[in-house]
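go over whats below:
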Amino acid sequence: MSLLKQFHKRMLINYISGSMIAVFGVGSVFIFHTLTLSGSEVLVLLGIMVISGSVMISLELWMYLRDIRPLKQFFFAGERPQEAFIRAHSFPLLTVRRILGPHLFGLSIPATGLALTAIYTEHLSLPYVYVGYAWMGALLIAALHAMIEYFLTSRAIQPLIGPIMQASATKLKLDGAALMSMKWKLLLSMLLIALFPIALFLLAGQIRETATGTAAYWNWASLIIFVILFLSIAGAIVLYRNMEQPIVELRHNLEQVQQGQFEEMENYYSDEFATLTDGFNAMVQGIKARDAENERLLESFFTVFAATLDARDSYTAGHTSRVADYSTQIAIRAGLTGDHLDLLRKSALLHDIGKIGIPDAVLLKDGRLTDEEFATIKKHPVIGAMILEKVNLPEHLVPLLDGVRHHHERFDGNGYPDGLSGSAIPEFGRIIAVADAFDAMTSNRPYRDAMPYAKARDILINGRGTQWDAAYVDQFLDFYEERFGKTRDQKSSLNG
């Protein structure tokens, strides 16, 4: 049986159950046990109920078929999932509208006309005022029926919502018309539950009252209803506020989780919210543990690659970690913080990963490179970016590619691989370029010894604004001279 057929069946069962309870249960008991009727009058009233009930069912079926149309279009043809999604969520409120519309008036208007005719033709020996009382009773019974159907429909519609969401390529959204807040559900439900039995009892009592006691009776009845109304509203508000606090707190903490802030909730509840809070805290703990493990794996990933590069070339051992250190110090002075700073450090650790793809004959050559060999070396930023792209980095790590691909761009546009210039060079690329160049100049190479700090410093200063971003050169020199002293002019290497 399809989901939609199951829904139709469930709605039919709900409708019959609600009608039996509200209309034929409460309504018929109210009529036949409150009024003193002869056998023929009972038959007349039963006939009126059958005729008006048939009109009611016809009108409500017509409206139901109209309301269900967007769901039929989706489940039969796969069309308009957004409209079907909204209609599914709206169906409980549409059910209330059907109960208070064609259900109420389709029953009451024909019944009123037939009852007035029966009284006029003396087939019913009732005062005309009783028709007004019947309308009051019908409104009460319709409200009860609407509440029952609302909550039954809310359960029945749930199996349809999941398939609609799964079939849509985009995220489906609700509009305000499809929603009903918990506050209104509680308020209206408590009012109806509190008022219905009292109001029905007062109405039934009035029907049995004599005409002489009518005014005094209604003064007393109005006071009773007012007091019950006040207590019901106050009780609903107190109950809702008691339930609202943990809901608001949970929603706030879920929003914090979406923003990457994983704070556990204080659990000071002693009802079902205690279990819900424990579940939320367990979720947060699980996310923290998973993130910590992922972070350890990432750190291991970066460490392994850095060690791999160092193992291939003993002359540049330690280069990667020094570049990461220098880049981090520049970034701190440039104002980078938090995750942004951590991403830069990771990018610097991986900046030469592309050298894995450079042949040993070129990478480890003991002497100066030919133009052809240098062209091969110049491919390593692109190779590094391709390696990381194939790893399928999560979205928050994608900025790592900027430092790997662009740390050999020049500020004047004469660098490689893309010939970018100025601020078009990604920030990570411009920062790592300064750190990488300095460490290359102050480290031993097979074809030359390391430069003294003073010479490397002069080269950086002369390249401000042409080869490197001037601001990052100044920030690097400030850091380096603070750490090692301004007079450091010996051969500079962290190994020496």
Summary: The two ends are 79 Å apart (CA to CA). Residues 190 and 456 are 81 Å apart (CA to CA).
